[in-house]
Each structure stands twice: as C-alpha cells, then as structure tokens.
Records
---
Amino acid sequence: MSQDWERGWLELSVSALDVVSRVETLEAVEAARVEYLGRERGRLTALLRGLKDLPLEQKKVYGPQANALKDAIEKSLESRKRALEAKALEAGLASSRVDLTLPAPPWPRGRRHPVSETMNEMTSILGRLGFSLAEGPQVETDRNNFEGLNVPADHPARDLQDTFYLKDLPLLLRTHTSPVQIRHMEANKPPIRIMAPGRVFRHEAVDASHSAVFHQVEGLYIDKNVSMADLKGTLSVFIRGLFGPKAAIRFRPSFFPFVEPGAEVDVRCLLCAGEGCPACKRSGWMEMLGAGLVHPNVLRFCGIDPEVWSGYAFGVGVERIALLRYGVPDIRMLYENDLRVLEKLAP
Ligand code: PHE
C-alpha cells in the first residue's frame, strides 16, 4: 500500500511541474489543473488523501513535501495562465486595425451655424423679457399669411414675384413669421406675449443683403393699454442686448397693413460705423426690423375685441443681425457653408 503511494509520489514529483510549466494554451492550463489538483480525480489530490494511511514516519517526511508540491503547481499554473493571457491580448491588438498607441487626430470641433447662434441669442433675450415660444409651419395658407393680417387681395406682396405658391394647392411658403400671430391669437386669449422664430421665403433676387430663404423672429404682445412706448422700450432693450449698450437705433415711420401706426427700426451699421458700405447699401444704417401696434382689423379677425385689447408686434430679420454681429459683409457667405469662412466667424 505504502509502496504504491511512494511510486505514485515519485512519478508525480518529477513530472508534474515540468508538464505544467510547458502548457501552451489556456485550455491546457485548465486541463493540467484538473489532472493534478482536480477535487475528484486529481492525481496529487489523491496522493494527499492517501497520506493518512501511511506510517507515521513517512507521513512526517512526505506530508510537507506533498503540500509544497501542491503550492508549487498552483503557482506555476497561475503564472502560465497570466503569460498566455498577455500573449493573446497582444496578438489581438496586433491583428486589429486600431493602433491604440497613435496620438488622437486633431478633429475640428463643431459648433452651431452663425444664424442659429444669432437666433438663439435673440430668443434668449426675448425670453428674459417674458416672451414665450410659439411656432407655426413654413407652409401656410393665404388666410394666415395675408388675409388675417389685413393684407388686401390686391397687395403687391401677394404677387407671384414675392411669394412662392405651391403647385396645384391653395398653399404658399410663408413670407414672414407674422402668420404665427394669427394662429396664436385665434387659439389663445389675451394677455399674450410670444416670440416666434422661424424660416421664411421670398421670391427675390439674391444679393449681398437679400436671400430667398431667411429667418425672422416675430414678437407679439397683447394686453390692455399697450402703447408705442411699450414697443420702443422693449425693442431698445432687445437691440442693446444684441449689440451692446452703445448700439444706435432709429425709429422710422413706415407702413405694414397689419399694424397702425407702423415703424421700421434701423441699427447703425456696425461694419462701417455709419460711413456707408455694401452691407448697408451705403446708407450707414441697416434696416433691421418692422414693428407697430397691431391693427384693429387683425385683432377682430382673431376674435379679440380691439376696444378692450391692444398690442404691438415686431418682426426681425435674423440674417441681418448675424451679418452685424459677425462682421460679415455679404449674406451669401452665411449660406455657402464654406468651412473656411464659417470657422472664422465668432460673435
Ligand atoms: N412681417 C413683417 C415683414 O416680414 C415685419 C413686421 C412684423 C412688421 C410685425 C410689423 C409687425 O416684413
């Protein structure tokens, strides 16, 4: 009995460590572990179990040796395993196309388009002044875009030359954001204080200051006893918010069918400081904004009693503001999306 044990021990003690130190795959590591240390049938496990049947003298000699061999095998298995795992990782990296040691490429950082940036700035100033956001569709009815706004049937703005009409449909591309006024006043009771940013369309020849597609931000305030003074106050704060406290503005009497009285607000050209340049058509002023007190016909059209309520409205062209803020001389530069140009634009 004890001779069998001794033979087994001898065999194992010479071969086990040698075998373990030479396994070449992770599967082989596990197989070797099972072969020697497996709980059920491991060869060394069996020898350790058999120790108790040996005579005391032998137990004293072999006990510590067998346990030392167990420790050595465990350590060897562990170190083989780690070495093989490292090798596998290295091979995986080498065969993949990603070289993690390369420095990161200097990707250019994206940002908002100057027109979006400007529009956000405008709505954020108006938001602080108490205007809440309203929106309407870019495809509109004649009723909302013209009729409700007191634009007579024979008004030149309805002309094909100014307005894009949809083929075979009684619809058009809105020529301004004012139809949002109609939509909002019909759906809501006063008091009302909204801003409506959005894209508008005009059948126009494109030049340094005109584009067939551009953006406006509409403002509408309806309450009791709203006056031209309220309008002027709000617009002054708005314009200074955009251009700084020194921004020079002027109000000019003007006509829009949907307001009475009506005004145009000009901002002194920031490109030429009033000297005259292509951007301001050499006038020194840039026409920036139409405004006025909401016409009683418009209020009535929307079911609001003009004897009780009054209000003001204004519509601002976003691109014109952007040209001034970014110091761009030509509106077309905003739309060509030449990254070399856009990258240089900073507010
Ligand atoms: N809707 C006008 C335009 O596009 C601007 C405007 C809005 C004028 C509100 C007065 C009041 O030209």
---
Amino acid sequence: MPAVVLIGAQWGDEGKGKITDYLAEKAEYVVRYQGGNNAGHTVKVDEQEFKLHLIPSGILYPGKTCIIGNGVVVDPAVLLEELSYLAARNIDTSGLRISANAHLIMPYHKRLDAVEEDRRGEHKIGTTKRGIGPAYMDKASRSGIRMISLLDGAEFKEKLAQNLEEKNYLLERVYEAEGFDLEAVYAEYMGYAERISHLITDTSLLINEAILAKRDVLFEGAQGTLLDVDHGTYPFVTSSHPTAGGACMGAGVGPTRIDQVIGVCKAYTTRVGEGPFPTELDDEMGEEIRKSGAEFGTTTGRPRRCGWFDAVILRYAARVNGLSSVALTKLDVLDNLDTVKICTGYKYQGETITEFPHSLKYLSQCQPIYEELPGWKQDTSSARTFDQLPDNAKNYVRRLEELTGVKASIVAIGPKRDQTIPVIDIF
Ligand code: IMP
C-alpha cells in the first residue's frame, strides 16, 4: 500500500494531470503539495476535457479524498471558480480538504507579480502573474496570511491591515500602481471564508493517518524539477519546491513514509517562460512538435518552446528526486517523424559534459550532443500494451531508459484515460 510522489521531471507541463488521473483510480488520497493556480492540468475523461489549476486531478473520481496541502498557495476566488466548474459538470467535490497552514494568495500579490515583472524588463522571468511568487515571499518573510486566519475574522482583519500598510506603500509609492482598500478586501475574503471554511483542516494529520492505515496515497506535484526554486534553472523558476522533497514539506509527512517517486516526462522537451533550453528547436521541427503536441499553456495559453528529449536533464531529475521510475508521456506526438533525436550530453567550450550544469551562464552556452534514432512512422495511439508499440518506438523508450538509468513504469500515447500503457505496476 504505497505512498507515491509524482513529480514533473522537466520544466513542467509533462502531462502530470493525465498520469495522476490514471493512478488516482487506485489511490484513495490525492494530495497537491506546492504551487498554486500557476499550474494547469488537462484531463480527458471519455469525450469530456477537464482543465484544473488548483484542485487535485483525483477529484474526477468519486469517493477520493483530495487534499490541498500546506505547501500550496491558494487563491480562494480561483478555488471557488473551480468548485463551481466541477459542480456544473456533475463532479462530486465533497472529498476536498484544505490545509489550515496553506497560505492565501491576496489581490496585492497578483498586482505585485505584474508590476514586478514589468520592472524586470528584459530580465523578466515570464511568470504566470497569478501572484505565486509574492505569496511565497510573504510566507518566507513571515507576513503571509494562512487559511486558518479565514476562520477568525478579527485575526484576518488585523493581519490584512498590517499587510496593506506595507503593500499599498509599495504599490502606490514605488510602482505608482493602485493600492487596495482594507474594508473591500476584508469583505471579499470573508465572503470566501463563508464558502470554504468547512474544508479547512489539519491535512498533515489526515495524510499521516491514511499512510499508517496502509491506504494508497498519491502526492501530485505541479510544475517540474527545473522550475524548483533550489534545484531548477534559477532565477527562471517558480517560488516553490516541485521536486520530490517538496512533497514532505508541503504535505507534512516524513521522508520515511514515501515508497516511490515517479518522474513524469514527455518524449521530448518543452518549456514556457524565459531561460536557457539547450535542445530548443527554433525551426520547422519545433513548430511541428508544437502543433502535433498542442503545446500551448493550459493556464496562460502561451505557445510552449519545444525541443528534443534531453537525457542530461532526466539524469539530473533522477538524482535530485531519487526517481524510482518514469512515466513517459506523449510518445504519439513523435509518430510521424522520420528520425528522432536524443540529447546525450552537452558540448561546452570544446569539452563534453554529461551532468546538468549548476551555472545558468554555463548552461546557456552548452550545445546539445545528439544521437539520432529511426522514427516509427506508425500510429501508436491505439496500443494498449508495451509489446503493441512499433519496434522503433520500443527501441526509443529502451534507449531513453539506458541513457537516464531509470525504467519506464508508464507510457502514454494520447490524452484519453485508456491511452495509457502500464509497464510496471505502481499500486
Ligand atoms: P510563476 O510560477 O508564475 O512565478 O512563474 C515562474 C516560472 O515558472 C515561469 O517561467 C512560468 O512560466 C513557470 N511556470 C509556472 N507554472 C508553470 C506550469 O505549471 N508549467 C510550466 N511552467 C510553469
């Protein structure tokens, strides 16, 4: 009865929503542990498509307990919107619980996110402007407002007043933007409190009790390894810990309780926002992958930058997350290609590098070294077992395993639930 952490092994958008949905059929608890509504998960159930940003994708199955952990930053307006969206589509959301320690995204966080990005000019990060960074900044500086404060109006108002004093000064005097009115924000958030207070609880206790009772628990990461504030391509990262260790911190469980870590990665690489990307394809091939992979952001609609699979990144993800296996997604996107390339290492100033460089400057000067494999030129989307894949597709997967040192436990060949090939049992 395992506790499994599912993380993004690249720059996010690896298809974690689909794999979570697949595994959530068996798991009883699904837990989000970091990030906020900067994430976007698209899940296809029969002919219906669901787009979720905050609520764990496990909610699409009846009877699951879905948890927003303490490490998540929650915009209550988005949460309520998502609850209404699900209710309108007859999805039962009664299993949702939110950590009392999760921090709230406030209206000033969103405005600060926008004005700070503008100020950065050519050094912009390319944030989603959802207020994520400023909310985590307040958490770290110990001035943030947590879910638990929504349960006590007087306490909430006092914290809000303290915050507004500083944020309005910053917005109005430094950024020459509009500030916020205490009573208006207070009234808005008390309105949210009325509708979500009953969901707020000690989720660490809930999760640990579930693990002790040998229930299957799935921790669903958002974003990806290279967007981790410590292990990613800093400063072009998000402000939380999408890596596996983040699950412990962001859910309140100890590392000894985790049984497996699955890294979700695409059969190629994508990235949104700014920052170096060694295998980026700035040509027709990149355009073809973007088109056939529908590589446009779920949250912002931005076109994603596309490139070949980078085994250096995957080896790095295997190291910092302690990957037990990999879930390889979107293999079908490569179906029509004559040949497929895999980056096996980088050239840096004439030297061959096989480990992901820790310096961004260094990374931006790395040239990919490619190995070229024959394509399979066959539709894989109806394969249901690994053996049903064309030989060249199998060879591609096996070569990725060799180069990264991690076995594939799942291969996905389309957006639908049944377009998922189990290779190794997880639950
Ligand atoms: P933030 O998380 O909005 O602060 O954005 C910081 C960086 O992370 C930007 O480069 C974003 O494009 C990127 N990012 C944030 N969330 C996601 C995601 O879910 N998928 C891919 N990139 C993301």
